Amino acid sequence: MDFFKIIDQLGEVDADVLGRFDSRRAVFSSLGTVAKRAALTATPLFLGALFQKAYAGTQSMPVDVLQYALTLELFEQDFYKKVQASTQYMGAAAADKAAIDQIKKHEDSHVKLLSGAITSLYGTPVTGVTFKSSVFATLATFNGGTFATSQLGIAQLLEDTGVRAYKGRAGELLGTDLLTVALQIHSVEARHASHIRTMRGQRAWVNPGDDAAAHPTYTSGVTGPTSTTSPFGYGIPAYTAPSPIENNTVQSNVPITTGLASPYTANDAAAAFDEYLQAAEVLDASRAGGLVGA
């Protein structure tokens, strides 16, 4: 376990992380001899204690939420790995390839961060989450054509699903500073989605004019069993009722088109907010759940 590497990775999405811990100098001066320092920093107990101190709330640490986030990040990481190895990517414009390379680096960083955090909190990170090769083989172009046959089209769906997924479980992190970290990753995912939309010639935000507007990514509900346990072995909240869909015009019981001083169109109201998805909806066969596999 590389203690400082984990802290540096956490710093990529939580700029205040070192302020949450004792200073490095103070921490290590309190550990005694060099031998003790080496031994303690190599153990999950030491790192776990620091995370508990920095991110402790009134509840136990929500490792299941971190596992859920890691599942999605592994899924996206494998998708972009497949994109980079494809002939379609090889023929793409240099700027487009550079954008995909940067997004892949972000996904790698998120995977390392979440895996390290889960391990330090005495959990075993999920592994082996991959994008279905059989589905990827049907993506005939890097861009162009329909979203369903374009690598960038599927990338848009994955990133928008990720944005809704993070928002859907953010409430479970209330009372811990991990909420800040999760929402910072959520923000990175949103920037990915916005840039990919621009690469595809779409507007940079979710709107009814999208060529993928009718896809289940932008609706809600489940089409399969409403199991409370994901295929990856960690608990998820029970599914109750469909989440708001992306053309929703009511926020916090306020009708945006009529309830504010300035009038807004339904399109403006829908575009101004991202809606959440519950875990069961994200893992449904019509969304990410149908794209996970060998």
What do these coordinates show?
The protein contains 13 helices and two strands, in the order αααααααααααββαα. It has 294 residues and is an all-alpha fold. It has two domains: 3-55, no CATH class; 63-238 and 275-290, Ferritin, core subunit, four-helix bundle (Ferritin, Up-down Bundle), CATH 1.20.1260. A two-stranded antiparallel ribbon has the order 1-2. A hairpin with a 2-residue loop joins strand 1 and strand 2 (254-255). Helix 1 (3-13) packs across helix 8. The two termini are 29 Å apart. The relative contact order is 0.12. Mean pLDDT is 80; it is low at 1-7 and 17-60.
Strand content: under 5%
SSE arrangement, N to C: HHHHHHHHHHHEEHH
Number of domains as seen in the coordinates: 2
Give the neighbour order of strands across the main sheet.
1-2
Helix content: 40-55%
- The whole-angstrom Rg is 21 Å
Which tags fit this structure?
2 domains; globular; single chain; 294 residues; disordered N terminus; Dessication-associated protein; two-stranded antiparallel sheet; mainly alpha
Q: Would you spell out the secondary-structure blueprint of this structure?
A:
Layout: H1 3-13, H2 17-20, H3 24-29, H4 34-41, H5 44-55, H6 63-84, H7 87-90, H8 94-120, H9 133-136, H10 151-169, H11 178-199, E1 250-251, E2 254-255, H12 266-271, H13 279-282
Antiparallel strand pairs: 1-2
Helix pairs in contact: 1-8, 6-8, 6-10, 8-11, 10-11
